[in-house]
Amino acid sequence: METHPLDEALRLERLEEGLWRGAPARPYANMAGPFGGWTAAILLNAVMLDERRLADPIALTVNYCAAILAEPFVIEAKLQRGGRTTQHWSLELKQEGAVAATASVVCGVRKPVWSHAAARASEAPRWDALPRASMAERPEWTRRYDMRFAAGGLDDFPRADGEIRSARSLVWLQDFPARPLDFPALAALSDAFFVRIMVARGTWQPMATVTLTSYFHLGDEELRALGAAPLLGEADGAVFRGGFADQSCSLWSEDGRLVANGVQATWYKE
Questions:
Q1: What domains, with CATH codes, occur in the chain?
Q2: 235 contact partners, CB below 8 Å, separation of at least 6
Q3: Is the bond into 206 cis (omega within 30 degrees of 0)?
Q4: Is the per-residue pLDDT at 1 higher than 80?
Q5: Which of 16, 58, 249, 256 might form a disulfide with 108, Cβ 3.0–4.6 angstroms?
């Protein structure tokens, strides 16, 4: 059976406890270095593979410190503190002895206690009622996803009309080829939204994610039960100022459950 591109891209070699070696994968290449979602996913994977892990991840923060080169790297995962319910991890991805990305991961034991879900998914056409977006002339990583936009697509990008549009996008997302969901895949999907300035302004300029945080709201069994089903993603931005902008996102199952959400800060320049 052929290995899925994401599984190949997330391959890590254990060197010793808490120390892993890997290499960027060409299928997830971006304009400069790898897709940020891959970086988030492989940092999380270093915790997922660690025998000291207590439970499922509930939060992930990644800070993008430098461009990741097309060469091997090491990830050091430190268990900073843990108890019976939560664990706190810190990670560093290094190349040539220098830090290229850092992360923190919180793992937590979910328990059958009182629950309440106030948030609701936005209405959107069914997945199979929308065409797959063309990724011609887009970075390589975009070909690893099946994206079907209900709003806020990039069919006419770039544009020179000077119009400032809503930064909101509503899009069905799925790994391509389809792959059962797990936490590293979900971490990558949380960053699979184009930088919001592209949607709002419609112009091209240097841009990148500086930091992102993702929250996971389903446990492993619930996530496995979703299989390879697409998720409805919604992303928006509230302010673009001084060369930095915010970005929020949420990912929903087909039956309306909030699977993950998060925020990030992006950088851009003229």
A1: 5-110+127-268 (2.40.160.210)
A2: 152, 167, 168, 169, 171, 193, 196, 247, 248, 249, 250
A3: no
A4: no
A5: 58
pLDDT, position 32: 86
Angle among Cα 129, 150, 30 to the nearest 5 degrees reads 110
Q: Of 259, 184, 181, whose CA–CA distance to 216 is shortest?
A: 259
Tokens coding 181 = 């969901």
Vertex 147: Cα angle to 144 and 148 (nearest 5): 160
Q: Which two tokens stand for residue 242?
A: 């001084």
- DSSP letters spanning 60-106: EEEEE-SPPPSS-EEEEEEEEEE-SSEEEEEEEEEETTEEEEEEEEE
pTM value is: 0.97
Q: Per-residue pLDDT tens for 178-190?
A: 999 999 999 999 9
What span, in angstroms and rounded, lies between the C-alpha atoms of 23 and 35? 13
